[in-house]
Structures are given as structure tokens and as C-alpha cells.
Amino acid sequence: MAASSSTRMPESRETEEGHVARASPPPTPTTLVIDKTLSTAANLAQLLPTGTVLAFQALAPSFTRGGVCYASNRCLISVLIALDAVSCAFFSITDSLVGADNKLYYGVATLRSLYVFNYNGADEEVRRRVLGDLVEYRLRPLDCVHVVVTVLVFLTIAFGDAMVQNCLFPDAGPNARELLVNLPLGAGVVSTLVFMLFPTSRKGIGYTNTAPTSQ
């Protein structure tokens, strides 16, 4: 009897102290879809200029009123998306370099060369000695591909946002909702494939994990 009582005491103490392990409920299909979409959107955001992504994420909740929009909110979020898309296109053709004076210079690619923003020297010979030959930074067909893909990636992220969907597409049916939810997944595959097959050497303004080119 004593042995039987001693074997039951730990079980009783464990029950009283509430240390019985309970299995967590399995994730629902809806939770899995949301997690997958958020993860994909986060990965896609790494392909975009950091400032553009932060501006959209900071302003979108206010401009959409959390998804409950008036006509003015629809105008605001539409303008925000348009400006951010233009910003993505612009920053995709920016570049940076370290001059012969060890200073960092930024510029935008043109059809002929690189237009440098922050170089103030007037002498053309000194400019060429400091910055080197900028013809190699001119616009190329590959830049057009990256501009188009970058803008499409941003639009995919923007229209995949639940608040933007509720604001701009309040009457969207189940088919449209399903398309908007899964669109970032398809865009992630396509954009990753494009950037793998056609990598760019540009070190654009606002992009992460880029080191400027040295002259």
C-alpha cells in the first residue's frame, strides 16, 4: 500500500501544480496561407529600395484608414502607390562609385553615361580624373528589364496588402481575393528567376547588401 501511494504522489503533484504538457492546436489552412504570403512579401521587399518600402509601409495604414476607406482615402493610396512605383523605377537605374579621392558618389544612369549628383568640381579634366570613365555606367537593355520587374514586384506587394485590397477593391469576390493573396508567391518565383538569369552590377541608392564600385 505504501509503495502504491508513493507512486501516485508525483502524478498528483504534477496535476495540482499544472505542469501537464498540452499539445498546441495545429495551424489552420488560413494561418498557413497568411504566414506564407507575409514571408514571401518580406523576401520580395529585399529586392526593392529600402526607403520606398518603408514609406509605403508607414503611410499605407493611415492612407487606407485600416481598410475602411472614403473616396479621399482611395485617392491618397492610389497616389502613394503611383509615386512609390516611380520611385522604384528611378532608384533601379541609380548607381554609386568611389572616386579616386576615396569619396562616395551617387548618380543616375543616362543614355550616355552616369549623371553624378554630389560632385561639384567644374573642371572637366579633374572630374574625369576623379570619377573615371562614366560611359560604362550608361543605360543598357538589362536596366529596362530590372526597372519593369522591380515595379511589378512593388505593385504585387502593394496590392497584396489586405488594407489596400479592402480600400481599392471592397467588392472583390472570392476569385479576386484568391488571386491577390497568391500573386506575391508567383511574383516571387518570376522575379527571383529574372534576377538570377540577368543579375545587375549596379549599386543603387537605397538598396541593401550593395557595395559601391571603386575607381
UniProtKB/TrEMBL annotation:
One of its GO terms (cellular component) is membrane. It is found in: Membrane. Keywords: Membrane, Transmembrane, Transmembrane helix. Its main location: membrane. Residues 1-29 are annotated as: Disordered. Belongs to the plant DMP1 protein family. This is DUF679 domain-containing protein. It comes from Musa balbisiana.
